[in-house]
Amino acid sequence: MQNKLPLPIGASDYKKVSQDYYYVDKTLLIKDILDEQAKVTLFTRPRRFGKTLNMDMLRTFFEKAKDDTSKFFINKNIWQTGEKYTQHQGQYPVIFLSFKDANKNKWPDLYARLKETIKDEFMRHSELKYSKNLSNPDFYEKITSGLGTETDYATSLLRLSQMLHEHYAKAPIIIIDEYDTPIQAGYIHGFYDATIQFTRDLLSSVLKDNQHISFGFLTGILRVAKESIFSGLN
Q: Which of 5, 132, 186, 198 is the S-S candidate for 22 at Cβ 3.0 to 4.6 Å?
């Protein structure tokens, strides 16, 4: 009798899930994204709905990597759709951030957590440190050293997208998972105004009218309409 694969409960690493768990193939989401050509897409779904796993699937499919990641898709539905879609595999730099841990009960602590998350993503792109193609090479060091101002961090993803575009001559894909976690924390603990201002500046600068992105994806459980953080992105 064939051994049954476990369900991916609490697992969000697409590479591992697609090989070691019972995986419901959702790779045709990639086809939908490429067909629709929407610059920015917001996925709002309840918790435990598989949002993070799907975002990691998109990251694995699109991201340039040292190793060949096509092996994680050749037995999936997306690979049967033809070269129009498979030619995008492994062709983009990707910015991937998760704000799931940005749930502190004081603004200074939350801001420090957001800074660390942004810093870690800059450091994941260490190839930029020695790139000769950057118009503003000092900004990378400013963020990774933790010496940036709040304005620097609020525009950091815009600058990172520009640097990756300059380095690779290919506009990156931006994925922000659980974008609304810091907003909820600010609302619950009484520092909503500071949180919404920083979040609006961070997201608007990188996602609205940014020539340095190919696609942008956000996930969360909230659609924060009254604050107009998505004005112009709809």
A: 5
SS in 3 state form for 54-70?
HHHHHHHHHECCCCCCH
Token pair of 137 as six digits: 């090479």
Exposure b/e, 86-110, CB count within 10 A at least 16 = b: bebbbebbbbbbbbeebbbeebeeb
Q: Which helix H or strand E contains 17, and what residues bound it?
A: helix 14-20
DSSP letter assigned to residue 113: H
Residues 6+ apart with CB under 8 A from 155: 201, 202, 205
Q: In angstroms, rounded to a whole number, what is the distance separating the alpha carbons of residues 160 and 125?
A: 9
The token pair that represents 224 in the structure block: 């924060």
User: Which 3 state secondary structure label does DSSP give 172?
Assistant: coil
Q: What is the pLDDT of residues 137-152, one digit of tens each?
A: 999 999 999 999 999 9
Distance CA 155, CA 133 (A): 20
Strand-strand pairing, 215-220 and 40-44: parallel
Q: pLDDT by residue (tens digit) across 203-219? A: 989 988 899 999 999 98
Q: Where are the domains of the chain?
A: 14-220
Distance CA 221, CA 199 (A): 15
